């Protein structure tokens, strides 16, 4: 994972399942300015395809990166999206 961008806001949706990671990401992105980066931290494995699908079908949102890792014995999925328009 290479986070060569400044994260403007982080949304922790650990423990929430579909559709909440996307719902919370959309709510957060709507409050960002163009160029801002949102980090979404989830434990739902479905968030990998859900966030990717949401970003690809949403004008003004660019998926920068997704990563899977282990934190404290729990699998965590990190998603980085950029707001491209306001």
Automatic annotation (TrEMBL):
A GO term, aspect molecular function: transferase activity
UniProt-listed InterPro entries: TusA-like, TusA-like_sf
Keywords: Transferase
SUPFAM superfamilies: SirA-like
Top-level lineage group: Archaea
Keyword Ribonucleoprotein in annotation: no
Domain UPF0033: 11-35
Family: Belongs to the sulfur carrier protein TusA family.
Name the UniProt record assigns to this protein: TusA-related sulfurtransferase
Provenance organism: Natrinema hispanicum
């Amino acid at each position: 994972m290479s986070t060569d961008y400044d994260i403007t806001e982080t949304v922790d949706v650990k423990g929430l399942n579909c559709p909440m990671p996307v719902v919370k990401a959309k709510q957060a992105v709507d409050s960002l300015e163009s160029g801002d980066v949102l980090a979404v931290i989830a434990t739902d494995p479905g968030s990998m395809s859900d966030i990717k699908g949401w970003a690809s079908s949403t004008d003004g949102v660019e998926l920068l990166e997704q990563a899977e890792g282990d934190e404290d014995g729990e699998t965590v999925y990190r998603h980085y999206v950029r707001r491209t328009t306001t």
